[in-house]
Amino acid sequence: MGEVIVITSGKGGVGKTTTTANIGTGLAALGYKVVLIDTDIGLRNLDVVMGLENRIVYDLVDVTQGHCRLKQALIKDKRFDGLFLLPAAQTKDKTAVNAEDMKKLCSELEKEFDYILIDCPAGIEQGFKNAIAGAQKAIIVTTPEVSAVRDADRIIGLLEANNLKSPRLIINRIRPDMVKRGDMMNIDDMLDILAIDLMGVVPDDEYIVVSTNKGEPAVLDMNSRAGQAYRNIARRITGEEVPLINLEYEDGLLNKLKRLLGLKG
Amino acid sequence: MEPVTLKGNREGVVVQLNCNLEFEELCKKIEAKLTEANSFLGNKTEVIINSGLVELDAGQAQRLKELFTSRGLGIKKIVSQLEKQDNGLAEKIISKAAEDETQLLSQGPTLIVRKSLRSGQRIFHEGTVIVLGDVNPGAEVIASGHIFVIGNLRGIAHAGAQGDTNAIVFASRLQPTQLRIANFITRAPDEEVLVPSEPEIARIKNNMVVIEKYLQK
Description:
The structure holds 2 protein chains of 2 kinds.
Chain A: E1 3-8, H1 16-29, E2 34-38, H2 46-50, H3 60-64, H4 70-73, E3 75-76, E4 83-86, H5 99-110, E5 115-119, H6 126-133, E6 137-142, H7 146-161, E7 168-174, H8 176-181, H9 187-194, E8 197-203, H10 207-214, H11 225-237, H12 253-260
Chain B: E1 4-9, E2 12-17, H1 23-36, H2 38-41, E3 46-50, H3 58-69, E4 74-79, H4 89-97, E5 110-113, E6 122-125, E7 128-131, E8 140-143, E9 147-153, E10 156-159, E11 169-174, E12 178-181, E13 184-187, E14 200-205, E15 208-213
Parallel strand pairs in B: 2-3, 3-4, 5-7, 6-8, 7-9, 8-10, 9-11, 10-12
Antiparallel strand pairs in B: 1-2, 11-14, 12-13, 14-15
């Protein structure tokens, strides 16, 4: 039986879609069978980030309305055999699908896949309700901004009210240099308010923009710091214990020596 | 207080009873109310009965059940507010918080919330509220009596919401977005404030909301 995980945030633009694409690809790279579902009907993006836009024939709404079989709508990834995408419809809106449809869909996919990742739209309306309907677990994505953390808090409350207990947190786009200067919320500040388990911290990385535009998830780039963070998160999802990466930027030989001698944390 | 009030909450329709009345008298009032609210209740609705500060005995519960079934309604459960009170713990805290102000003891039934309140969550209660957890920014606690937060109060707290200027707000870490007592509204200063390191109490003194350290040295 597979695990259905919804990736949500409340606020838009914090990196839900990027996170879904990267974790999904990361899990597929580890050899798991994974399907990504884009529930952002009307504003679909996940297909673009995955570089699969030109392969879409059928979509989520076609499946739930019975215009095609589920198998026909699943798009196989170009890099991994075990990775599939169920794209959102672009010409409909969120009301084209309801919570019951999603539950049915998820329980069907569960039989065949190890991980079902649901990319949730921003907001707390119908699209959000659809996205969480079939999920067993939730991952909250937030950025180190007060507004994003506020929305994340609201989402956690709503998830709890819908019996999705103990969601886990991904802090995205953190800039260690700014945190160090005290110009950005630090990890502890956020955990203090949200009080949920931390699943990973993804540093801000210019390469994400490049990879998103090219449709090649950063998780596959061994030189990308964000990619490294996503690889670790994928491994944590499978239950492996992986320590958080050191966010400090590369800093000279002297500091490395000091660290070796135990003079610097 | 009305003998019978109907309220909707997340669990369903709650029938709030004032059991200080004679039971037979109360039954008549219920019948009258049910006739009046027929369209609101609909058919086959399962209601929750809240017997206030009185526990109903088995006979009375049975009688109520018959009364509701004869109207095509069901009873989901019968609760009393006694269950929400924690064996006088609340009163102990209050008496400690305001030793010489004994009138503070009579602030209605106490609601104990055993979880953190997150943004968008709102608690309204006629009486005193004790939150065993944090009140996050964007969350609201509104009480006609006192408010005690055994945790961080970062959201909005409104004590004495029905005009009781004796009401107080206590928090282990008092750093609210906004603090209201009766019809006084205060907010945190705009400049950066230090995080309080010990429990504090807000109350009205000389027509001003003042914040004092809870532990007197």
